[in-house]
Every structure is written in structure tokens, then in C-alpha cells.
Amino acid sequence: MTTTQMPQTFLWGVSTAGHQNEGDNVNSDTWFLEHTVPSAFAEPSGQACDGYRRWQSDLDLVASLGLTAYRFSVEWSRVEPARGEVDDEALAHYEAVVDGCLTRGLAPIITFSHFTAPHWFACAGSWLAAGAAEDFGRFCGRVMDCFGDRIALAMTLNEPDLPRMLQAMDLPEETWEVNRVALAAASRRAGVERYRSGNVVLPEEMDALRDGLMAGHRAAKAAIKARRPDLPVGFALAMTDDVAIPGGEARRDGQRAQVYDDWLALASDDDFIGVQNYEQLVYGPDGLVPPPAGEALNDMGTPVRPESLANAVRYAYSKAGVPILVSEHGLCTHDDSLRAGFIAPAVAGLQQAMADGIPVLGYCHWTLMDNFEWVFGYGKQFGLYEVDRQTFARTAKPSAAAYRDLVAANRG
User: Fold this and answer.
1) Which of 97, 116, 156, 369 has a CB 3.0–4.6 Å from the CB of 383, allowing a cystine?
2) What string of DSSP letters covers 204-254?
3) CA 161 to chain centre
4) 297 pairs with which residues across the strands?
5) In Å, how far are 8, 73, 93 from 146, measured between CA atoms?
6) Count of Cβ atoms closer than 10 Å to residue 150 Cβ
7) Which contiguous run of DSSP H or E holds residue 366?
8) pLDDT tens-place values along the chain, 412 residues long
């Protein structure tokens, strides 16, 4: 275990997301897509982890780990279930969560869009529609007017580069065909020409989606800064650690240029950039290089390599030149012993990057508990806590204690 203390201002946290955790997010685009046949999702989210009701005891779990930050999302579809219709009770709920964080000594890190959006927004074409950015900016303004004075960090978007990353990983054509069929079915069911979503996308719309999301970030940032100029604003990028063996440099550099670099250039005008790293990918002359036989793999089939976090952080900083927040980092595995042994060496690498002069604001582990993992449903596990799918009882895994002990040894 590394025992070099972090600065007192360093944020130790966990990340969660509304749709994946709260349950019954019935006015969202993702809920609609989950219940449309055929669906791109393995199963519906349903009650998820029942987190909308259990938020106070969940915050107690976060505090019990000795953490100082909690990242969560405000569900746009709850706050604005119909266009122009504001649900004051939903806003009051999220305000209570923010205040609950502060009462427990947790800095609230707010994500304004963690993939999901309202059903009405998707019916209009989502981020491809004219006026989408303005719609998002108005939502962010409403949230800020309610409790923006108590937020520690604001994150506009979560992993807007993920569709492009998946495309660059050469997914089989069948994957995109599933999306195509699902979106066509959703359009018919909704009675609209083009039902679209931020995380069920089509390859030919990638550029337009990027442009719409970038405009959305700018509009959100303007709305947030208009109300609180001092609040640090950024967004979170999905970033693998891209490594090249001899002859693979061009492929690696092409991957980076295609997936990250436009977004990192945008981030250079922000207050920070969120880095979300889970994997290392190795490129050779012919493309991705499979891991050596016998190496420990996560449940996504890639090697368990803790050094990937620091490498991703270094690349992000080299391009954006702004402080880094590790807004997600974790391990997809049913073998919690792998997770328990994975966090400390990853953080040690992060500390070395900081010693080398890279400003890092904090580290948020993904995630507090096993939850709804999008198209995979409940089959993939990232949590420090196990969740009983019938009773929703939370049970700590050994990795929760490992993270707690690491934080205790390293808090400034």
C-alpha cells in the first residue's frame, strides 16, 4: 500500500449515476429504449438499486469509507419530465442529496448529463436536433438556481466520446445493426421521424452527435458560469491507456486523434477535465494486440493493469493542460480480490504523476455498488458493495475495506 499523503484539498470519492442507481426513471430516453422491442439493452433497469429512496443510507456508506467527495448525476428527465414542465419535488430531492453530502463532509460533484435525457428530448432528435444545446443549458440553469451555490465541481457531460471510442475498437457490424433496429423501433413506437439517444447511436451520425454534444457543453458551461463564475466546470472523457509496440504507433495515434483530441482541445478552455479509465489497449502494426496467455483479465476481456490510470491522466494533461479529476476508475469483475488489489497500485501511479507536476484534483472510484450497466444490464459488476436484487440490501465487499484503508493512509 502506498502511504504518501495527498494534499488536504485532494478529493477522495466514489461516482454513481442516476439512471444506473436510482430506479424507475420512467420519463427518460433510456427507459423508453429498454421497453421497446427489439431493444439494445439486455434487460430493463427497473428499480435499479432503489437509490432514489435509499440515498441517505447510501451517503452513510460513502462517509463510512472515510471519503470526502460524492459524484452523482441529476436526472434531467425527473426535473423536466415534459418540455417546459419543471418538477419541483425532483429538484427538492436533489437539493436534499447535496445538503446530505455537505452534512457528512462530502463535496458534491454534480454531473448534469450522465448519458440519459428526457423522452421528449429524444423524440425531438436528442443532441442532433436544432435547439438541443439551448434546452440543456436551460436545464442546467434551473439546477444551478436551486442549489448551485453548494456544488463543489460541475461536470456537464459524461463520456461524450464513448460512441467514437467503441467505433474505433472495431466492434462487429452486428453491434451497430442492433442500434439501428432498436432506434427504428423506438421511432415507430414514439410516432416520430427520428428517436435518438446519447448512448444508442449510429456510426454515420457520430460527427453530428459530437457537434451537438460540444454545443451542449458550451451552453451548459455558460449557464453555470452565469450564475456562479467561481464554480469549476468541466466534463468527463472515457479514456483507455493506449500503448504501442513497434510498428503500432500510427494506429495508436490515430485512435487518440479520432476519439479524444477534439474533446481535449475543447477542455483546454475549461477549469478541469474528468478522466475515466478502465483499460489498457495495446496496438501493433495489424491493430489491437491480444493479452499474453495467463494474464489476469477483467470481465470485458482486457488485462488488469493498474498503470493504465496514470498513463491516461498523463496523456489528457499533455493535450488539455488543465487540472485532472479522476472522475471514474474501476474494474469490471466478479472476482473482488482483483478489485481489492487493483486500487492501491493505480493510485500509486497517480501519485507519481502528481509528483511529476500534473495537477490532480481527486480520485473517484466507480462505483459505490453493483448497478445497472447499460446494455449489459445487471451482468457486469463494478461495485465496492454487492446489492441483493430482491431486497436491495447492500453488502460490503473486501474492496470496500481496501479502499477505505488506502484513503485513511493517504489523506492529507
Assistant:
1) 369
2) GGHHHHHHHHHHHHHHHHHHHHHH-TTS-EEEEEE--EEEE-TT-HHHHHH
3) 11
4) 303
5) 29, 15, 11
6) 14
7) strand 360-366
8) 445 689 999 999 999 999 999 999 999 999 999 999 999 999 999 999 999 999 999 999 999 999 999 999 999 999 999 999 999 999 999 999 999 999 999 999 999 999 999 999 999 999 999 999 999 999 999 999 999 999 999 999 999 999 999 988 878 889 999 999 999 999 999 999 999 999 999 999 999 999 999 999 999 999 999 999 999 999 999 999 999 999 999 999 999 999 999 999 999 999 999 999 999 999 999 999 999 999 999 999 999 999 999 999 999 999 999 999 999 999 999 999 999 999 999 999 999 999 999 999 999 999 999 999 999 999 999 999 999 999 999 999 999 999 999 999 998 7
Q: Give the three cell numbers for residue 236.
A: 468527463
Q: Return the number of other C-beta atoms located less than 10 Å from residue 173's C-beta.
A: 9
Question: How far apart are the C-alpha atoms of 335 and 321, rounded to whole Å?
Answer: 36
Distance, in Å, from the CA atom of 313 to the CA atom of 315, rounded to the nearest integer, reads 5
Q: Provide the grid cell at 214.
A: 460540444
Whether 81 and 27 have beta carbons less than 8 Å apart is answered as yes
- CB-based burial label for 292 (10 Å; 0-12, 13-18, 19+): exposed
Looking at the DSSP bridge assignments, the partners of residue 174 are none
Residue 402 in 3-state DSSP?
Answer: helix
Q: Coil, helix or strand for 372?
A: coil
Q: Dihedral sign for Cα 158, 24, 14, 332, please.
A: negative
Q: For residue 293, what is its C-alpha cell?
A: 496467455
CA 263 to chain centre: 15
- Per-residue CA distances from 156 to 45, 53, 139, 143 (Å): 23, 25, 11, 12
- What residue ranges do the domains of the chain occupy? 11-240+249-280+304-407
Question: How, if at all, do strands 280-284 and 287-288 pair?
Answer: antiparallel
Centroid of chain to Cα 186: 25
Q: Give CA separation, 67 vs 10, 52, 327, in Å.
A: 10, 21, 14
Is it true that domain 11-240+249-280+304-407 has CATH number 3.20.20.80?
Answer: yes
Three cell numbers, residue 128: 442532433
- Residues near 89 by Cβ (< 8 Å), separated by ≥ 6? none
| CA–CA dist 160, 157 (Å, integer) | 6
